[in-house]
Amino acid sequence: MTFTAEQIAQLVNGKIEGDPKIVVDSFGKIEEARAGQLAFLANPKYEEYLYTTNASLVLINADFILKQKINSTLVRVPDAYKAFAILLAKYEEMVTRQVQGIQQPVYIAKSATYGKDVFIGAFAYLGENVSVGNNTKIFPHVFIGDNAKVGDNTILHPGVKIYHDCIVGDRVIIHAGTVIGSDGFGFAFQADGTPQKIPQLGNVIIEDEVEIGGNAALDRATIGSTVVKKGAKLDNMVHVAHNVEIGSNTMIAAQVALSGSVKLGKGVMIGGQAGIAGHIHVADGSKINAQAGLGKNLKTATSVTGSPAYEYGQAIRNQSLARNLVEMEKRLSDLEKMIKQIYPAKADNT
Length: 350
Prior knowledge:
With 350 residues, this protein is α/β, with parallel strands linked by helices. The strands form 7 sheets. The protein has a 12-stranded mixed sheet with strand order 8-11-14-17-20-25-28-31-34-37-39-40, covered by helices on one side. A 10-stranded parallel sheet has the order 9-12-15-18-21-26-29-32-35-38, with no helix packed on it. A 7-stranded parallel sheet has the order 10-13-16-19-24-27-30, with no helix packed on it. Helix 2 links the parallel strand 5 and strand 6.
């Protein structure tokens, strides 16, 4: 697909400087782009590449002042980074719209239903009473278990597994290898010390506009539902245990683990490899630093770090002090020697 600078400018409400008829067919990084590609400049650290890039078209901020002559056509926008993200999303949408129909071989149960303009890739499996909405894309090797529901305009990338009774909303993206609705980790110890499995009878509900990265695992509830609310974004290899609730627009980076019955509020941000103990409640807008270990409730919006995690500012001060412990020990030892010299009797008594 090709686009002119005029078409690009219309999509992002930008102003053209240069040739409005210039054509681009793909995206490139500003330092590597070739002729015929679109690049963007948002970070000042990359400004030098603006004057040497081979990109035919570059998105830049409206208030950016040129220091040298350039060869590229420019599209000025209020925020180049956001505009570039919009273009990437539009391009991806147009590409995915092109795939439609049902490849063979697939298995679709007689009681399963699907809407208009769907794509169902080879070796996909749709179980009994499955419901798939309009314009949804199901790529090869996807499994959708009995009674599961998938909404409109949703994308299930290759190898996604959605267990029975789970619900996936509209405009959801789930990346390859992710498992929705596997059993929660529930066991009861018997008198002889052996763990007895507790049946996991609930499901997982993923609301609209959620995105989940590759190889994540979201466990079904013991009773009730594990819930990911509207607009939440989960990175690769995130683990969500049974009966967890993730608030709307919450952002969770890779390798985070949420223990059973954790409740996250709206707009929470969690850095990579953080862990949260079971039954913890986290207030709206809280921030949990990478590799933090949270073991207590956050009742108000709080930023925490460390393991065990505690208030961010205090933790940073403590870390700073810790780096000086050797010097502080030496100073304390010197002070003790001085005290003994000045007050030898008192020093000996103590």
